[in-house]
Write a structure and sequence with these properties.
The complex is a heterodimer of chains A (about 450) and B (about 575). Chain A is an alpha/beta fold and about 450 residues long. Chain A has eleven helices and ten strands. Chain B starts with 6 loop residues before the first helix and ends in a 19-residue tail after the last helix. The longest helix of chain B has 21 residues. Chain B has about 575 residues and is mainly α. Chain B has a domain of about 180 residues. Classes of the chains: A alpha/beta (about 450), B mainly alpha (about 575). The interface between A and B is large, with 86 and 79 residues.
């Protein structure tokens, strides 16, 4: 008899013979002793997908690597990523296509990066991360976790429709959401299913059962909205189901201590400090099996130094190009700062050890931006990066020139790499059927 | 004991539970077929009704009305979405994300625990005692749940709904060996249900064969419009009796609601939405540059404007256009520090009221809402002012005009060095040398530059970097020399009053009026103008319009925005 069957019988016994149907998370996920693989199947730890959306691009001529393909060297603005060079890919020459639509500066590029095109109305299709989460995140407590580094709740992560998955700007609040009272420590010795959870599941079905009655009254678009609502109810039901199952032990999971955030905001010191806290929380959330998808949004436009009457975005348009240097000095300071913040984030994932490996080893992060060159709002020659190889699912260490191809190629590639069945992605000129095959393992 | 109780609670605690229950009992029969209340505007074609998600304020108001104002929600709502200028329209375009549902679920549990498991609250709120605390009692559960359900769902619960929630309380109560634990769980599920969180209208046929909202859906639309809250017991009873289907009965309810102090909450909610006041939540200023502008001042700034609007438009029934010129306002001492005027909190009787009525003198540069910090500080980055952002806000928020997005791939070579310029006007003049940029900046900048006399925190100034600020310009052909005269130009701009009607009618419907509904909106605009731009009269006009309740059944291909 399998362990699953045993556990079900135990549950049935505890619940006084009531049939308990539980969607069991991580059913076979018993790690081997060194914590790197699942004991039963020997498979690697599950893959993780992350996005890093950072506004305002880089300086032309200062980020494109020195040669194409493997063995490239980072240009000056990406030097900070040198420790990760063998585990990342840098794409140059990617484009966002407008198809005659106006640029809503900073927004349009982010929409194409996340959604594959510019929505024509209020609704759009799902974002890359949601599509991947539907594939890999359905059996974790959180389908995805969104954070904003600049103190607001905006996000480009969304399912189909109009509502976005709101970002969490506060590390304290994220800590409570992940590791608050609802957290089940996978390594806790004792496990007793809570009868209240069983009762609550049965009661929530009173809500789910009303689906048909309410849907019948609605038009198509409102039905789609309610569909999202009922999907979210199901997520709550899944969370309850997980609470009824003793979580598989995860030796690398250590509940982090609460750390004091600084007031979320746009000053560089606030952003640097809170991003480190976010990195620590997300790394632990992954190590503790709470999520397999995360999104980091760095709307860097308001980034500023204390006391300065200008900020990163203002400088991009108002700062003269330094004649000697050949670039905008302040803008460049912000670019280097933001890349350092990102590199620190990656370092945290790397130092979150899991057996012989780290969280970063089973993660792939898709780094994208809004404009190639913020000073002139360009939509071409965009940088795109991937960091990590998701447990060997992607090949790395390459500079890949797109030569004007849509940036969406990389979105399609990572979706395919994470097992999403999809042959084309994007709309109008941003549509592509051409994955970057050289990085698919 | 709660300081303030809803009518429902008062009745319950006074031992009138039976009376309350009787008043709240579901209608045994459908209300009589409705007669058309009045003639709709010529050429009017109705559209499918919106299905708004409750806004945070509406959720809070509903919980406070039913269970008392001291119930702590203990959660956080997901952000609203702004569509076509209003969160009210966005509320008809959103579902619920997983993160949002987690919060609804947590709030529902917290509310249910306070209502049912707190013994003091329980004694007042649950109209019966179970046969045993340790076992389900369907009759008692039904009495409570069907009563509360009518207020939460804003209509009587259907028989299958009652059965489902009573059964849920029974199942959970059995599992937990506790009547109250089971009841709390069922109540929590009700608070997480689509019937509570979404306002799905029910469509019926009027006597003339036209599709109209049924009485309860009318009551909801009316109540959320005028009070930003769910219908009270009186309104639900009027709906039950079919009174809202006659023009006389409808007018009686509208009069009652307009005369209530609760209309203030409705007016505040509308203007907070129209003026983007939710942005105050994330508004931060650089405290090295604006040391006097903290969270406190940000909160006071929006309250200043809302108080000014309520006093001017509701208490004094003034011309709406006076909001751009009025010298009268309300200030706290913190705002007084920004405006550099003395504000004394002490009142003659020794009480302290942080809010004091204040009138700027005739020669003071301040006057009208454009001179409020709620405008100049809200529409500025953290560390500076922005003529373009403010000009865009005037066009889009106050005049309902769309400013085109900036172009891509801009060639900025003509404006390479703007940092040597001292004032915003010099910087923007240089910027506008680029023809691609000049067109749109002409639309926004002249008004924004007039407001340059207010810095990023709303403080008055006459110079920037030592250079005098030139605040002259034109708005749609009308010249002005300073921010106050800009207010006068807005006062006289026909688009400002028309914008209010567009926004208020959209807000009331939860969607942008469809093409076929424009004759109604045009009529509202004519009436508003002819009546001297009195906002409560416009609200009443909307609320009593037959067009407001006309609809068509949702089509399978319906789009939520029915544009």
């Amino acid at each position: 008899m399998s362990k699953l069957q045993n556990r079900r019988n135990v549950l049935k016994g505890i619940m006084g013979g009531t049939a308990v149907t539980v969607g069991l998370p991580f059913l076979d996920a018993f790690l081997n002793t060194n914590g790197t693989a699942l004991a039963q199947s020997g498979a690697a730890l599950p893959t993780v997908f992350g996005t890093w959306l950072q506004y305002l691009g880089f300086n032309p001529g200062r980020w494109i690597p020195d040669r194409v393909g493997k063995g490239y060297n980072h240009n000056i603005e990406l030097k900070v990523f040198d420790p990760f060079k063998e585990r990342m890919n840098v794409v140059s020459g990617a484009n966002y296509f407008l198809d005659g639509r106006p640029v809503e500066t900073h927004r349009t590029g982010a929409q194409i990066a996340s959604l594959g095109g510019i929505p024509t109305g209020r609704d759009s299709g799902p974002s890359v991360d949601s599509i991947i989460a539907d594939s890999i995140g359905t059996r974790t407590r959180f389908r995805s976790l969104e954070v904003s580094l600049m103190g607001d709740r905006r996000s480009y992560s969304k399912r189909a429709g109009a509502a976005v998955n709101p970002s969490e700007p506060s590390p304290d609040a994220l800590y409570k959401r992940i590791f608050g009272p609802e957290f089940q420590d996978p390594n806790a010795g004792e496990f007793t299913p809570d009868a209240k959870v069983v009762a609550k599941r049965s009661v929530l079905s009173a809500v789910s059962d009303q689906r048909h009655a309410i849907m019948a009254q609605l038009g198509a678009s409102d039905r789609a909205r309610l569909d999202e609502y009922f999907s979210s109810v199901r997520q709550i039901e899944n969370q309850l189901a997980m609470k009824l199952e003793k979580p598989a032990p995860l030796p690398a999971c250590h509940v982090p201590g609460a750390k004091q955030e600084v007031q979320p905001g746009e000053e560089v010191a606030q952003v640097s400090t809170n991003t480190k806290l976010f990195a620590d929380l997300l790394a632990n959330a992954v190590a503790c099996g709470q999520t397999r998808v995360f999104n980091v949004f760095m709307d860097a436009q308001g980034a500023r130094k204390p006391g300065s009457t200008n900020g990163w975005h203002g400088y991009t348009h108002e700062e003269p190009i330094d004649e000697k240097l050949g670039y905008q000095k302040e803008v460049t300071w912000f670019i280097l700062w933001a890349n350092q913040v990102c590199a620190d984030f990656l370092t945290t994932l790397q130092t979150q050890k899991e057996g012989a490996g780290s969280v970063l080893d089973r993660t792939l992060i898709l780094w994208q931006t809004d404009h190639g060159y913020a000073r002139t709002h360009t939509m071409d020659n965009l940088p795109v990066m991937t960091i990590g190889n998701a447990g060997g699912r992607f090949k790395t260490g390459m500079h890949i020139p797109f030569a004007g191809d849509p940036a969406t190629r990389m979105g399609l590639t990572v979706m395919q790499g994470f097992g999403v069945s999809m042959s084309a992605w994007g709309s109008l000129s941003n549509q592509t059927q051409k994955p970057v095959t050289e990085i698919l393992a | 004991m709660h300081a303030k109780r809803s009518a429902f609670l008062k009745a319950a605690s006074a031992g009138c539970i039976a009376a309350v229950l009787a008043a709240c009992a579901p209608a045994a029969d459908a209300p009589p077929a409705a007669k058309p209340a009045a003639q709709a505007a010529a050429g009017f074609e109705p559209a499918p009704a919106a299905v708004p998600r409750l806004t945070p304020a509406q959720y809070r108001a509903t919980v406070a009305d039913i269970f008392g104002p001291t119930i702590d929600l203990g959660g956080r709502f997901e952000p609203d979405l702004r569509i076509d200028g209003l969160l009210a329209i966005g509320s008809s375009g959103v579902g619920v994300t997983s993160a949002g549902m987690e919060q609804y679920d947590a709030m529902a549990d917290a509310i249910a625990a306070q209502v049912v498991l707190d013994k003091k609250n329980r004694a007042m709120l649950i109209p019966c005692k179970p046969a045993s605390d340790k076992a389900p009692d369907d009759a008692c559960a039904k009495a409570f749940l069907s009563n509360v359900g009518r207020l939460l769902f804003r209509r009587p619960m259907t028989a299958p709904e009652v059965t489902a929630y009573v059964a849920a309380a029974n199942t959970a109560g059995t599992k937990l060996n506790s009547f109250h634990d089971g009841l709390a769980m069922s109540l929590s599920a009700m608070l997480s249900s689509p019937q509570f969180l979404f306002r799905a209208p029910q469509v019926t046929k009027a006597a003339g064969g036209q599709s109209v909202l049924d009485g309860y859906s009318k009551a909801s639309q009316l109540s959320f419009f005028l009070w930003n809250a769910a219908p009270d017991a009186q309104l639900l009873n009027a709906a039950q009796k079919g009174e809202l289907d006659t023009s006389k009965g409808l007018e009686r309810q509208v009069e009652r609601m307009m005369a209530s102090h609760r209309v203030e909450a409705g007016v505040r909610a509308f203007f907070a939405d129209m003026f983007h006041f939710e942005d105050f939540e994330s508004l931060r200023k650089d405290n090295l540059i604006y040391p006097m502008f903290s969270r406190r001042e940000a909160m006071d700034a929006q309250e200043q404007t809302l108080r000014t609007l309520v006093d001017l438009l509701i208490a004094n029934r003034a011309d709406y256009r006076d909001v751009f010129t009025t010298k009268k306002t309300f200030l706290t001492s913190s705002l007084g520090a920004i405006y550099r005027v003395p504000v004394v909190n002490d009142r003659p009787n020794g009480a302290v009221d942080p809010w004091q009525a204040f009138e700027f003198s005739a020669d003071d540069p301040r006057g009208g809402i454009l001179s409020h910090a709620s405008f100049s500080a809200l529409h500025s980055p953290a560390n500076r002012s922005s003529a373009t952002v403010r000009g865009k806000a005037i066009r889009e928020i106050l005049l309902c005009q769309k400013v085109p997005a900036p172009p891509g791939n801009v060639d900025f070579t003509l404006v390479n060095d703007t940092t040597s310029y001292k004032t915003a006007r010099e910087r923007l003049t240089a910027h506008s040398k680029e023809p691609m940029c000049a067109g749109c900046h002409k639309i926004t900048d002249p008004m924004g530059l007039a407001l340059e006399s207010f810095d990023g925190s709303g403080a008055y100034r006459t110079t920037e970097n030592g250079e005098p600020i030139d605040t002259s310009g034109t708005l749609d052909g009308k010249k002005f020399n300073n921010s106050y005269e800009l207010g006068l130009a807005l006062h006289d701009n026909a688009a400002a009053a028309a914008c209010l009607v567009d926004r208020l009618s959209s807000y009331a419907l939860g969607r942008k009026p469809a093409k076929g509904e424009t004759p109604w909106v045009a009529k509202l605009k004519d009436d508003f103008t002819a009546g001297g731009y009195v906002v409560p009269d416009l609200m009443k006009r909307i609320a009593t319009s037959p067009e407001f309740y006309r609809t068509v059944p949702p089509a399978a291909t319906q789009t939520a925005s029915a544009e």
